Amino acid sequence: MTPTASPTKRTLSTADVRRETVLEVGMSAFAERGFLGTPTTEIAKAAGISQAYLFRLFPTKSDLVLAVIDRSNERIKEAFVAAAARARAAGEDPKEAMGEAYGELLEDRSMLMTQIHQHAAAASMPEVAAVSRAWFAELYALVERETELTPEEIHQFFATGMLLNVMAAIGATDEHGPWAATLRVC
Known about the structure:
Shape: globular
Number of domains: 1
Radius of gyration: 19 Å
Largest sheet: none
Order of helices and strands: HHHHHHHHH
CATH class: Mainly Alpha
CATH architecture: Orthogonal Bundle
CATH superfamily: Tetracycline Repressor, domain 2
Structural class: mainly alpha
Helix content: over 70%
Strand content: under 5%
Number of strands: 0
CATH topology: Tetracycline Repressor, domain 2
Number of helices: 9
């Protein structure tokens, strides 16, 4: 009989901790000024590291941008998976639960603006467009797997999510009139 190893908690290295800090600071900074309008010196300073060390963690600004986009979309994926599991366990509709989870994510201004800047940057940054397409494909497959939606219904699910992005970004509320109330609830 061989002894079993006891599970050990993984301790992050200093570089891993710094990388996490840079991603969080980067998401917030990019949300404020966009990917192209945010200098890396600002992110390094906010993270408490030198710009040289930032570039050791992320060799190019593009690498940092892509990592922030991955982080943002990973949060969406995790929220969808968790919401679908909770809904299924409660005998509820996973689509509705995932939609509500996305709405909750959009309450985080950094999350919302990272999504908005991601889509805008895709028009001029081919590497952002490629990563965005890959994430849309992954999220589409997730929604397809977790629901019984038809392709047309999946289209509507994503179209509604994009409309919610716009409505949240422009700060439209029911007080802005019937048009806002209608478009916010789709």
